[in-house]
From TrEMBL:
Species: Mesorhizobium calcicola
Transferase keyword on record: yes
Xref: CDD domains: Glyco_transf_WecG_TagA
TM helices/strands, residue ranges: none
Superkingdom as given in the UniProt entry: Bacteria
Position of the signal peptide: none
Protein name (database record): WecB/TagA/CpsF family glycosyltransferase
PANTHER family tied to this protein: PTHR34136, UDP-N-ACETYL-D-MANNOSAMINURONIC ACID TRANSFERASE
UniProt keywords, alphabetically: Glycosyltransferase, Transferase
């Protein structure tokens, strides 16, 4: 099943295009039901999440943008919410950020699944696997490899995934490497749902702290992350967020001028 039919299955009216990238505008429980159905029916579907940072990268990296066109994309964070409000008059129904959504999806899936983990450091991947196994005891969690492998090691890693053929493959290598790696190496022979999860394994392992719940509820997790890792993240947030919103406003005006041209 290709991505366009997956999007059609969830309803064309549920798609909102942010900077040229179609994102599913569905509720948390609807997204869970969709992924559960895809795993049950073994319909190969690549999954990722769009936030302001990824959207900015796709604007300047056409290879990444092209790869995203074949993913089922869920909305992550306040940036894409603001974009949806500017472009469509309403935010996304729910914030489906992978750090909260993926563990919740695995917890809620009652049918036992095989879940493979690829990425992060070996220590963090093993710790994340233990954490997931404790909150979702019905599944079998397998660490395939850390995210620091050479091109020479790739065939063996891909072969191991194909032999295991997990229901879910969590790929944690950062953007855009994880999406490009899935696009280039993973298809229906390897797993059912490859999900690009960013820093999820680092968060689950406890190696990278999460914002307190009150900050998450106020949609200020990005501010907490900036405070924790200013050297690595200042460009992403301090430069990236205003740039993203500028691009969104440009999209709105170009759409408005196109509409005006159609009227004339």
């Amino acid at each position: 099943m290709n991505m366009h039919s997956t999007r059609a299955a969830s309803g064309r009216d549920t798609l909102r295009t942010i900077l040229g990238i179609p994102v599913l505008a569905i509720r948390w429980d609807e997204a869970m039901a969709l992924l559960t159905r895809l795993t049950r029916e073994r319909r190969f579907t690549k999954v990722t999440f769009l936030n302001a940072h990824n959207a900015n990268m796709a604007c300047t990296d056409p290879v990444f943008a092209e790869a995203l066109d074949d993913f089922l994309i869920l909305p992550d964070g306040i940036g894409v919410d603001l974009a949806a409000k500017v472009l469509y008059g309403a935010p996304f129904p729910d914030n489906l950020n992978g750090t909260d959504f993926v563990p919740a999806f695995l917890q809620a899936s009652t049918r036992p699944l095989t879940v493979a983990l690829l990425g992060a450091t070996r220590v963090n991947a093993e710790a994340a696997s233990k954490k997931l196994a404790a909150i979702a005891v019905q599944h079998n969690f397998v660490v395939i490899h850390d995210g620091f492998f050479s091109a020479a090691q790739e065939p063996e890693i891909v072969e191991r995934i194909a032999t295991l053929r997990p229901d879910v493959l969590l790929v944690a290598m950062g953007v855009p490497r994880q999406e490009l790696w899935i696009a280039r190496h993973i298809d229906a022979r390897h797993c059912t749902l490859p999900i690009a999860v960013g820093a999820l394994l680092d968060f689950l392992s406890g190696a990278v702290p999460r914002a307190p719940l009150w900050m998450r509820r106020l949609r200020l997790e990005w501010l907490f992350r900036l405070a924790v890792e200013p050297g690595r993240l200042w460009r992403r947030y301090v430069v990236g967020n205003p740039l993203f919103l500028l691009r969104v406003v440009r999209q709105k005006f170009s759409r408005a001028s196109e509409a005006a041209g159609d009227i004339h």
